[in-house]
Every structure is written in structure tokens, then in C-alpha cells.
Design a protein that fits this description.
Elements (H helix, E strand, L loop, with lengths): L2 E3 L8 E3 L2 H10 L7 E5 L5 E7 L2 E7 L21 E6 L5 H12 L3 E6 L10 H18 L10 E3 H7 L3 E5 L8 E2 H5 L8 E5 L7 H9 L3 E4 L7 H16 L1
Parallel strand pairs: 1-3, 6-7, 6-11, 7-8, 9-11, 9-12, 10-12
Antiparallel strand pairs: 2-5, 3-4, 4-5
């Protein structure tokens, strides 16, 4: 199932399309006038949207699958586990790739974290703009029900303070609290959120590990090879979904 994000608020049944939106619908999704697609506004309200020249005709629907779609691509209909990804800032366009894959997979939120070993300590305005566009495109292409929120970067301490539910930190070095991912998830309550921390290219410092342990975080090894920073998060998201869905 694909999805169209209504970037501007609408108070009526007609939603005018700007040039970029029309290009996405006609040339990227290859839809035609008279086709129908699911749309979602900034308040996460869903609509059955009929496509016309220059506008969409909107009819509210309770759930995405209530809409009769011309796009026949299937999607998982049950609720996905709530996963909040706390990704330490990586170099260059890796952050865009991480954001795209995470939202296509259905994370509930994504937060970029400034940690000690980050080679880039902040996201520029250009970075934030690019990542935001990547996320919007990922949600539309995948039909993800994840809310699209403003991109920000926060400190490691703030990330730990905000994290909810079971806190899992991917860390390759062995510690007293280290366990395999399935074992760590076995302690999660039914429906409990998972806050997943993934390091940058340099991983986490000893001070950050101690700080996380004091917060009650669990350090996890993935039952696979050593993964790159941009691979570890998406691997773990998929594993968590398979184990908890």
C-alpha cells in the first residue's frame, strides 16, 4: 500500500496539488486521473483520495485499509511494535540512508544523537532539510503509519532521559549486562515500547556505557557479523519486529 502525505492543511473535501505533488503522483507513482490512493494529513487523519487534474477529492476513512486503493501492493496490516530509534550522527549521507530505511521499516520515531565518538557533531540546516524530504518520500512509498516529525539532534544524556520502555543499546564489546537480542526482548512487557540506541562509526564511549547502565539499559549483541553503523539499526529493527510482532 502506498500513501500520499498532505503537506498543507485542508478544511474541505478538495486538496489542491502543487507542481511537486502532482509530479510525485503522476510521474513517480504513475497514477492517472480517476485513480484512488490513501492520503494522510499532519494530524494523522486518513482519507480516501480520488485523483483529478490539479487536485484530490478527499473522503475521510478510519483506517488505511478502509480505502479502496487502485494500488494493489500489499502491506502488513497489524500494529507493528513501537520502536524509537536513537541513532548517533554518522558521516555525510549515511544519515539520509538510515532515515529512509528506518521509516520504510516502520519505526515510530527517529532521533539523531550527539555522542562522544560522532565525527560530525551536529546536523546542518541542509542536512535536516534533506533528511526530512527523504523521510516524507519513504513514508509515501512504503505506506508507513509512522508519524512524520521534525528532525532534531539531541545529546546522549537527553536521549537517555527521554527514552521510554525497554532501552536496548547495540554494543559489540562484552559487558556484564550484555546479552543476545532475543534474550533482552524476552524481558519486555506485552506492548512495551523499545528504545533502540545505535552508535556512530566509533560506537559508544566507556563513560556513555556507564551512564546507560545507570539508566537501566541493556547492551545487546546481534547474532550476525560485525555491522556498519548504517546497517546495524535497520537489521535490529527487522529482528525486533519479527520477534515481537
Amino acid at each position: 500500500m502506498r500513501l500520499f502525505l498532505l503537506k498543507n492543511r485542508t478544511d474541505g473535501a478538495l486538496y489542491p496539488l502543487n507542481k511537486k505533488e502532482a509530479n510525485f503522483l503522476f510521474n513517480v507513482l504513475r497514477l492517472s486521473p480517476g485513480d484512488e490512493i490513501t492520503a494522510r494529513d499532519a494530524d494523522n487523519n486518513y482519507y480516501s483520495a480520488f485523483l483529478a487534474e490539479g487536485f484530490l477529492s478527499l473522503t475521510p476513512c478510519q483506517r488505511p485499509e478502509d480505502s479502496s486503493l487502485t494500488d494493489s501492493l500489499s502491506a502488513y496490516r497489524k500494529a507493528l511494535p513501537v520502536i524509537h530509534l536513537y541513532q548517533c550522527i554518522c558521516k555525510g549521507k549515511k544519515n539520509e540512508s538510515i532515515a529512509r530505511m528506518a521509516y520504510e521499516a516502520g519505526v515510530s520515531s527517529l532521533h539523531f544523537v550527539r555522542s562522544r565518538f560522532c565525527q560530525e557533531k551536529a546536523l546542518s540546516e541542509h542536512d535536516i532539510e534533506r533528511i526530512s524530504l527523504v523521510i516524507q518520500d519513504a513514508v509515501q512509498q512504503s505506506g508507513s503509519q509512522s508519524p512524520v516529525k521534525d528532525i532534531r539532534s539531541i545529546s546522549f544524556s537527553q536521549a537517555l532521559e527521554e527514552a521510554e520502555g525497554l532501552i536496548i543499546i547495540l554494543h559489540q564489546s562484552s559487558r556484564e549486562t550484555t546479552r543476545l537480542l532475543p534474550e533482552a526482548l524476552s524481558s519486555a512487557e506485552p506492548g512495551e515500547a523499545i528504545s533502540l540506541f545505535v552508535g556512530s562509526e566509533g560506537g559508544f564511549s566507556e563513560e556513555e556505557c556507564i551512564q546507560a547502565e545507570d539508566r537501566g539499559a541493556l547492551f545487546c549483541l546481534l547474532p550476525t557479523n560485525i555491522l556498519r553503523a548504517e546497517t546495524a539499526g535497520i537489521y535490529a529493527i527487522g529482528a525486533i519486529q519479527c520477534l515481537l510482532a
